Amino acid sequence: MTDTKQKIPDYWQWFTDSRYGLFIHWGPYAVYGRGEQVLFREHLDHQEYAEMACNWNPEHFDARLWARTAKAAGFKYACFTTRHHDGFCMWDSAYTDYSSARQAAGRDFVREYVEAFRAEGLRVGLYYSWIDWRLPAYFDGPQKDPQGWESVRNYLHNQVKELLTNYGRIDHFFFDGVWPRNADELGSVELLEEMRRLQPHILVNNRLGYSEQHDGFRADGGVGAGDSDTLGDFGTPEHVIVPDDRRLWESCQVTTWRLWSHSIGERWRPADVLLDMLVDCVQKGGGPTGGGGNLLLNVGPMADGQLPPEFVERAMQIGRWLEVHGEAVYGTDGGSVTEFITRGWQTTRENHLYLIIRFWDGRPQLRLADLVTPVEAVTLLTTGQELSFRQDGEVLYIDGLPVESPTSLFPVIRITCKDRPAANQWGRERLWEGDPSRIAQWAKVRGNSVYANGEER
Ligand code: GLC
User: Fold this and answer.
1) How many other CB atoms sit within 10 Å of the CB of residue 98?
2) Which atom of ligand 1 is nearest to the CA of 127?
3) Which domain CATH number covers 70?
């Protein structure tokens, strides 16, 4: 696993060590309470929407409270919507008056956010949508409206540069909403160069548009393809946990259903489902790209600036779990050393193998097959209890487990090995990989004594 890692620059190490980031979708759309795309999805009147946005004054927004909550919940970084597809800017942009700073609120929310999160020791990220539904030229594009397009493109570039100039060090940048433009039209390669000049250590995502020049020709000319195959430092699987094997990756996920900004009356995923997503990202991390495997978990704060209590409750539950079990998540090297699907997840860090148990069966013994590395100690991390164990060939028996699950979330057992944990062929190839004759051989040995082809032998 780790042997095949490509080296990532040291200044990006924070990203793979963090594993867990907070995505924040917040803007005037929260007033409607039906998702961040309500303007277009409900085909609202632009003028009315703009009036609402200009009058929006979220009096309870307290970035320090958000930051303290995020930190206590175990997030290591955050990414904040500076401008979503509605075009309303959450900072004091010199290029438009359509912003929180120049309208009713009179506040630069981006500044408040970056300062508060940085002060809590979290890394800061900015989300920026290419799309602006107010600008016809964005959709007409350079062919139909060359002049209009030119000014839209300058506007976009200027705003991105402004965000990377006026707010100190920015660690993470999340573009979105490329459709229907492509990278060549957007000039995203040139912009990326500028971004790196302004912020040499920044990590930029892959929603830079498809580029004929960089990605090769695609039948659709890249139209409709928001993700570049090659541009950008990290991939952004959305609503799914599918590793990007070309680069670092971060799966972005909602805590609710599919809308990203606050939706009144929404249903919430329980904490164990959210923790499942985090652990899944972490265990799929590692591998050739040297880490990836982050979860960017979303919250849509309410229109008045408060975090929804349903979110805080779940996030804090996970935060308390991470306080005890964080070493099985942060800075880990991916997982899935041997077969463990009948119990839950695995992650690794140096010589440790962590068993993250989804279902606690109340039995005193756990049997782990196919681990070849000698084991030195086994600890129930959840309680700190040292557990007795014995290795019989390539099977590890762990004893003395309590009847009751020691946590309402997932208990974790830490296995300290003599070396990096490794499995035999069965543990590596499992059911669906490798040479099937291995399984045929096994079936012959085990099956013949009772029934074969329905007949007793
Ligand atoms: C999608 C949505 C957008 C959301 C983003 C988050 O692209 O269009 O509203 O902000 O996902 O990744």
Assistant:
1) 18
2) 10
3) 3.20.20.80
